[in-house]
Amino acid sequence: MEEKRVSSIISWFRQRFGNQRSDPERAESCSSSQCSPDPYNSSKDPSLNKPFPSNHQSIISSSSGHLPSSSSHTLPAALSSPFRWSLSFDLCVCHAESDKALAHSLTCFLESPAYALRCFLRHRDCSPGGAISTELLQALQESHCCLLLLSPGFLRDRWCQYQMQQALCEGPVSERIIPAVLELSYSELPPELRFVSTLNMNENPEHKFAQVYRTVISYLKDMSENGKMYQRDET
Asked: Which SUPFAM superfamilies does this UniProt record tie to the protein (predicted)?
């Protein structure tokens, strides 16, 4: 009888917990499933099968491991404000082709249910057949904040340069602009951004994704509480 009782308990535990995944696995599944529409797929994009540099991998694994539980996490009030919904995106992520995997991972983190931001990625969200210059300018105009992922590849990409200059038209100290530096020295930064606070993606990378989130939320909160509606000059 005792053996049957033990066997029954073990069977119950297997049925109850056998199919549950570990927290990191749930976080990875969550982040990959939330990058819609049409997330990067390694079968479609071979570049995502390349190994990450050590600092990229650290950022990705750390961000996935620190997702708060969606059941206990309450989204900030700024995300339901009328000001937030006045534009299509919360963050425009400007990045070079060589940094696409990192930008994609950041976007998955920010778009997960725990954070629920709306991000724009050039290779994912541009309309096929549309003029690139028009698409990028419209993305900036329809985004509350803009993250510039400054890297050697960024400095060589003419479309990154175009988008950066468009973002800087309102001034390099705009609260909307979030410069994130990756593998660049101070002397290599664009002159317009050398006297602006930046996120160093090479140091303590596990905190940077969350810091980007807090910066966007702070901007939305300040603008919502002050009753300001951001207006851009039409060209």
From this structure: Toll/Interleukin receptor TIR domain
Residue pLDDT, tens place only, 137-175: 899 999 999 999 999 999 999 999 999 999 998 766 678
Euclidean distance between CA atoms 168 and 172, whole angstroms: 5
User: Whole-angstrom Cα distance, residue 117 to residue 102?
Assistant: 17
> What's the predicted TM-score (pTM) here?
0.68
DSSP string for 185-223: -GGGS-GGGTTS--EETTSSGGGHHHHHHHHHHHHHHHH
Task: Write down all domains in the chain, each with its CATH number in brackets.
Answer: 83-226 (3.40.50.10140)
DSSP helix/strand/coil, 131: coil
- Cis peptide bond N-terminal to 37, omega within 30: yes
Task: Return the pLDDT at 195.
Answer: 87
The amino acid at residue 58 is: S
Name the residue type at position 193.
L
Asked if residue 55 has pLDDT above 60, the reply is: no
Query: With contact defined as beta carbons under 8 Å apart, do 160 and 180 qualify?
Result: no
